[in-house]
């Protein structure tokens, strides 16, 4: 009876081992050298990076936030992530590494353009919305903060106008181009 039990255990181990090896080969661990953190890279939500001996997953789209520094931007992973060719969330997306100001911009439609005026005619120019910490802003968006108008020069998720490094906002002298 003991021999049958031992034989069954050995057989089960031998059958399980190839499956474990095949499973490990099917989902290879990410390469530390290919996924090293780059401070100037834009990271999409879900992207993974290796930094100072640990793996991290991006919690939001951002640029230049250092992993492991207490910021919400990164979550430390307990084990190396599995990288597969079809895993969209772990591989950097083309737009995740290209600054928004260098990405292709949509061509404005004729009805999107404001009429040009000459002389001293007054133009109805709506005031931009007030900046909000909870807001998500794209390149070119304008906001009002402490009486000043700011224009986003890179994507911003809660970065206060006039602060942050690298800067996300630029002081805009006029909220509209067509104002005298």
TrEMBL record:
InterPro entries per the UniProt record, alphabetical: CBM_sf_5/12
Organism: Marinobacter lipolyticus SM19
Protein name in the entry: Uncharacterized protein
Keyword Signal: yes
Lineage: Bacteria, Pseudomonadati, Pseudomonadota, Gammaproteobacteria, Pseudomonadales
Gene Ontology cellular component terms for the protein in this record: extracellular region
Transmembrane segments: none
Gene Ontology process terms (BP): carbohydrate metabolic process
Residue span of region Disordered: 77-127, 154-180
Highest taxon of source: Bacteria
Endpoints of the signal sequence: 1-26
Annotated SUPFAM superfamilies: Carbohydrate binding domain
Record GO terms (molecular function): carbohydrate binding; hydrolase activity, hydrolyzing O-glycosyl compounds
Polar residues bias (residue ranges): 171-180
GTP-binding among keywords: no
């Amino acid at each position: 009876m003991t021999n049958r039990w031992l034989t069954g255990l050995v057989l089960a181990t031998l059958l399980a081992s190839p499956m474990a090896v095949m499973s490990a080969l099917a989902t290879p661990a990410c390469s530390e050298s290919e996924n090293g953190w780059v401070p100037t890279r834009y990271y999409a939500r879900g992207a993974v990076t290796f930094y100072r001996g640990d793996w991290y997953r991006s919690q939001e789209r951002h640029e230049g936030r250092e992993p492991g520094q207490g910021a919400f931007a990164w979550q430390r992973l307990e084990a190396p992530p599995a990288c597969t060719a079809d895993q969209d969330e772990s591989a950097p997306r083309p737009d995740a590494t290209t600054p928004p100001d260098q990405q292709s911009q949509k061509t404005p439609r004729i009805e999107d353009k404001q009429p040009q005026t000459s002389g001293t005619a007054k133009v109805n120019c709506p005031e931009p919305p007030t900046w909000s910490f909870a807001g998500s802003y794209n390149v070119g968006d304008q906001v009002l903060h402490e009486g000043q108008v700011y224009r986003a020069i890179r994507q911003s998720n809660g970065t206060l106008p006039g602060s942050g490094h690298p800067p996300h906002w630029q002081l805009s002298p006029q909220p509209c181009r067509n104002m005298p």
